[in-house]
Design goal:
The structure holds two protein chains of two kinds. Chain A is mainly alpha-helical. Chain A has nine helices and no strands. The chains are: A mainly alpha, B mainly beta.
Chain lengths: 151, 308
């Protein structure tokens, strides 16, 4: 009896947590801004070693399609995750974006991307900063979409 | 006499089962998914035994098919294939379901059970050392030869028991791991401390697994490519037993070291191979692991949309 209870308990816990996790996706923008605001000054002020380099932008775009487009859309205008051309993202420093990529936002569904080498994370940041702000009115609204709430 | 008859019947019954009923349909399903679904880029380390702190991305499903070939001093060599279905429940929780089988040369092919594992990240940020808590429920038989972990005084002579005998002995075990993992300049260093408890009043068994790996090139090239160095990861693993709660020592334990190489294609397919070498007389002399995995991005969302 006790043997059967363990997997049953784990299964119930699985479904309960899965249900609660889907509830948090795509919402609670303020939580994400709090995360970016927590980037330590040292990370915030880090210089992007690839800033403005054409090869890095191309490489970043390639990596973005492999790792990020599923949630943020092929053009980074947002899909199930937020618009990365929004002013909030584009106004963040390269260091803040690199810090967010490395740490993710686990509470809001964005995984940490520390598993890909630092050089590649900087290439993604270079690509994101090359996009410039979106002209879409939706993404310009404060809190309409924020970094790190990817599914 | 009974022993010979039971071996023959097991051979007859087991021969067709995993290969025709399970492995082939599974391969067809995997191939169909490869063709039908866009792949997603994975960031998990390609270890076979050790785990790092990198979990499955939330909503992604990774389908993995692996096998191990092992030499056996007393008995036939074996091949043990298994399948894994790894799903990112949340950004801090990955769950995984395993189906195990094995073929022992000169004996039979048998289905050896299932396993269900869960990994949890307790800390929300990256640190120098990142802990992950691992808990797994195993419903297998003593014929299981996947060697996904080596604990207690596991040794190569355990695998010499004929399938007809070993497959009758069912075990229900809880396996726990403390996974510690660090990333530094493109390298990943992982240390796993394993505690396994047979629920049938056996003592706790302990083991370890260590892993280190690095991509051949850290920065990505501007253009998409399959054969460039950035897609290849090389590394090594070391794992073995540490005795039991009543005899915590290296006496009677087996240990292995295994270099590995993985090829992560941009399509989401990863191929990996790892030859392993036994380090003492209790170990299998040679192990060869290989596998293929495919990651389906946004699987959970696509599945939910079917029911809306």
């Amino acid at each position: 009896m006790r043997r059967a209870l363990i997997p049953a308990f784990l299964l119930c816990a699985s479904f309960a947590a899965a249900a609660s996790s889907t509830h948090h996706h795509d919402s609670d923008a303020r939580g994400v801004w709090k995360v970016i605001a927590q980037a330590p000054a040292r990370a915030r002020n880090q210089k992007n070693p690839y800033e403005g380099q054409a090869d890095a932008i191309s490489a970043g775009q390639k990596l973005f399609k492999q790792h990020c487009a599923e949630c943020h859309g092929d053009d980074a205008r947002g899909a199930h995750g937020p618009d990365l051309r929004s002013p909030g993202v584009q106004n963040a420093t390269p260091g803040e974006l690199a810090w967010l990529l490395r740490n993710g936002n686990l509470a809001h569904g964005m995984p940490p991307w520390a598993g890909i080498p630092e050089q590649r994370r900087w290439q993604i940041v270079t690509y994101l900063k090359s996009l410039g702000p979106s002209q879409s009115s939706d993404s310009a609204k404060p809190g309409a979409s924020t970094p790190g709430t990817a599914q | 006499m009974d022993f010979i008859e039971s071996t023959d019947s097991a051979r007859r019954a087991g021969k067709a089962f995993p290969l025709l009923r399970f492995v082939l349909p599974a391969l067809v399903a995997v191939t169909t998914l490869l063709i039908a679904s866009p792949g997603a880029g994975a960031q998990e380390t390609p270890y076979f035994v050790a785990y790092s702190h990198h979990l499955e991305e939330p909503g992604n499903l990774e389908i993995e098919t692996y096998a191990i070939y092992g030499t056996q001093k007393a008995g036939g060599d074996f091949i043990a294939p298994w399948m894994e279905f790894e799903y990112g429940m949340t950004a801090w929780w990955t769950t995984e379901f395993y189906i195990d089988s094995q073929t022992t040369f000169g004996d039979s092919t048998v289905f050896t059970g299932t396993r269900w594992e869960n990994r949890f990240r307790p800390l929300m940020r990256e640190h120098w050392i990142n802990p992950v808590l691992y808990v797994e429920f195993e419903n297998t038989t003593d014929a299981d030869k996947t060697l996904k972990e080596v604990v207690g005084v596991d040794n190569q002579f355990d695998a010499a028991v004929p399938n007809s005998v070993a497959n009758k002995s069912h075990t229900h075990e809880i396996e726990t791991k403390l996974i510690l993992s660090s990333d530094y300049r493109g390298w990943n260093f992982s240390e796993n401390f394993i505690g396994e408890k047979n629920l049938g009043h056996e003592p706790w068994e302990f083991g370890y697994a260590l892993g280190v790996d690095r991509p051949l090139r850290l920065a990505a090239t501007p253009r998409p490519c399959n054969f460039c160095r950035e897609n290849f990861i090389v590394g090594a693993e070391m794992y073995g037993g540490l005795g039991t709660a009543s005899a915590f020592s290296l006496s009677g334990t087996s240990h292995y070291v295994a270099p590995l190489v993985a090829w992560q294609m941009p399509s989401g397919v990863t191929l990996s191979v790892s030859p392993g070498f036994g380090l003492n007389e209790n170990s299998h002399t040679f192990l060869l692991r290989w596998g293929m995995s495919y990651e389906i991005g946004g699987f959970g969302r696509k599945l939910r949309s079917l029911f809306r």
